[in-house]
Design a protein that fits this description.
By secondary structure, the chain is of the alpha/beta class. The protein contains nine helices and ten strands. α3 packs across α4, α4 packs across α5 and α7 packs across α9. Bound molecules: adenosine-5'-triphosphate (ATP).
Amino acid sequence: MPSMLEVSELTHTYPGQQAHTAIGGVSFEVTAGQLTCIVGPSGCGKSTLLRCIASLVTPTAGQVRLRGQPVRGVPEDLAVVFQDYGRSLFPWMSVRGNVEFPLRSRKVPRAQRRRRALDTLERVGLSGAEDKYPWQLSGGMQQRVAIARALACEPALLLMDEPFASVDAQTRFELEDLLLRVRAEQDTTILLVTHDIDESVYLGDRVLVLSKSPATVLADVEVELGQQRDQISTRESELFVRLRGEIARTLRNAPQNRGEGDHEGSREDEEPGPDSSGEDRADEPALAGSDSAGSERGPTE
Ligand SMILES: Nc1ncnc2c1ncn2[C@@H]1O[C@H](COP(=O)(O)OP(=O)(O)OP(=O)(O)O)[C@@H](O)[C@H]1O
């Protein structure tokens, strides 16, 4: 498979009096058609990493290459879906208008714009909603519009920053399956940030596990669950349970990086204390289910 994205020794320090290094030398490569999930503790630099890849933030050091070419400026064949669909859609534009909007700036002719918008809305299950306004739709439907808008651009690379974090559990499962379906149909390369370990294993061909800020890659876990996934049987499978445990353990046992703002010493040699007993901590990615025997979260939760 040809390489779609290469991230080499990417570093980013937010300047200022209290300069903060969010990313501390991250390197990885994504091949065309791959769905790569990124998990890491809250505030470790996941969004910063996506913003650097999208050229919304200029990295302090390192390089991003898309299809072998260094990325300078926001690439046309890249689309981003953010968590906050409420703020990312234009409330004064119809659903179709929102999906067509980025195609206008890409100078796609009007008739083609309309056809692509309607086709994509059908693919995400929103036929019939094209003339509605975002505020007339549920949260899950609004996020479908945001996904449709990104897919209508037919991006070579789709970046998703916690895209399902603001919807209820049932809608989340539906959107996860929608993503897997359109990905299979369109063969899109996807880089998806999530704080949910189960979601990363369910969706990913591979999971990159990041350390605390400044983020580095702790592990690159291949997910050999095959293309066909099912919200219940996949999550119950032995391999799924093993992988989610492996990722959770990697995060729990990771040495704490020392950023500019940190005053604590390294915890590298410490025994896991009461706060690292496997119970959820506010800054740790969530592991659904109460023990390592399997995910107990079903689609009706
Ligand atoms: N514009 C900014 N200026 C200064 N510091 C920033 C800025 N944006 C983010 N940071 C800091 O950089 C670090 C990484 O932030 P980032 O949002 O990338 O993390 P994250 O892993 O996406 O967090 P979360 O999981 O909570 O969404 C945090 O400590 C944050 O406070």
